[in-house]
Amino acid sequence: MQTIENIYVDGAFTTPKGEERLPLFNPSTEEQIGTVRLGNIEDVAIAVASAKRAFPRVSRTTKSERIAMLQRLSAAVLARAAELTAVMAEEYGAPAYVTGFSIPHAASVFLDMARTLETYEFHRTIGRAAVEMRPSGIAAAITPWNSNIGFICSKLATAVAAGTSIVIKPSEMSAIQTHLLTECLHEAGLPAGVFNIVNGKGPVVGAALSTHPDIAKISFTGSTATGRSILAAAADSMKRVTLELGGKSPTIILDDADLDRAIPHALMVGFGNSGQACIAGTRILAPASRLDEIKDRLRAAVAGIKVGAPSDPEVRIGPMVSQTQWDRVQAYIRLGQAEGATLLTGGEGRPDGLNRGWFVKPTVFAEVSNQMRIAREEIFGPVLCLIPYESEAEAIEIANDTSYGLASYVLSSDLDRAKRVAAQLEAGRVAINDAPHEPLAPFGGFKQSGIGREFGVFGLDSFLEPRAVLV
């Protein structure tokens, strides 16, 4: 049992003023593995004051000094990669392939931002004006539980590159991961107050950051509902906001697709991170002319997907993060049946042989209309909808008929055709076939999937404000 009693403020681990404690669980076993003492509004005030003291110094750092800080942060995370992997598996239940990507990615985001800095022009001449890109001011970051370590690192990397200090509120459900990561970040030896980390609940710590008059910039990743609340709270003081929110992403299987490649890929992007991913391709759009074949292949492929604890390297779907999340997914599986969709595979309850742990049967619904709630609302679990279409134009129409616009996927044997379809999709990121991740490309959504972009030069821009000097 691990007890987390500290937050991180002004370069040191300190005891929070808040006294509320929250139990922490292993989602694979449902056993309590720790407790965390939560910060409160007073802790936010202290952390913001620390960041405010640090801001003048960090904002005057040179590009080379920021690059050096980013390199030290990367090395500090990488040095304890094995421990971070183990704690992410225990507290979150992430399968081995998820931790195998997530932890190296968390270390590499600092180096990606260092690469961005190398060629970034903070001083520009436009006509007769000298333009300087200056940090917006003290930043706040609010991060979710589905990739706790990665989100903390990516937002911290951007703040350091921009020359700003930051207060981070991670998910309170990820406190053991956060504590170990904070130990790593502390070892990088950044000046006191450049980053501060306060555990706490969204309605308390998150709300206090969203309204604090000294916070100039908020970067939030999480649900659309919470994003709306943050945006409204930030409006009073005109805070700059970056919101990376929910998604209901389409995976379009064109009628010329090689199903030997397309079906595994559709399931990978749909069930990745156990379905607890904002970019999950949860709506599979299939040509009516090949619908029966696609149904058979999906049914057979899902039968071969292993669900279980992260200790088994063959597992592809781990547990839901909490009992609350498990209940939410179960409710949507019941709703899909009530709406008239057909269970192609999966359904309610735990998979056979798993009597404990918040595990969900990988589920695919057929006979789904795009107007059903299971096709329109973000479920955040391993539940997919198979939606037929008659023509390419209808596929595009269905894909765009959503309040979200975070990601889209196009699977085709004809690359030029796939590009034509991709060009018509309303999403912040479109992946064609098995396109690899590009860490410097902008990431964010259209419509209710958010505001602004993260990563690379676009993410750095979002923490800066241009100032023109006319001579």
UniProtKB/TrEMBL annotation:
Catalytic center residues? E244
The reply on keyword Secreted is: no
Q: Which CDD domains match?
A: ALDH_CddD_SSP0762 (cd07138)
A GO MF annotation of the entry reads: aldehyde dehydrogenase (NAD+) activity
Q: Which InterPro entries match?
A: Ald_DH/histidinol_DH, Ald_DH_C, Ald_DH_CS_CYS, Ald_DH_CS_GLU, Ald_DH_N, Aldehyde_DH_dom
PROSITE patterns the UniProt entry points to: ALDEHYDE_DEHYDR_CYS, ALDEHYDE_DEHYDR_GLU
User: Could you tell me the EC number(s) of this protein?
Assistant: 1.2.1.3
What family does this chain come from, according to its entry? Belongs to the aldehyde dehydrogenase family.
Q: What is this protein called?
A: aldehyde dehydrogenase (NAD(+))
Upper lineage ranks?
Bacteria, Pseudomonadati, Pseudomonadota, Alphaproteobacteria, Acetobacterales
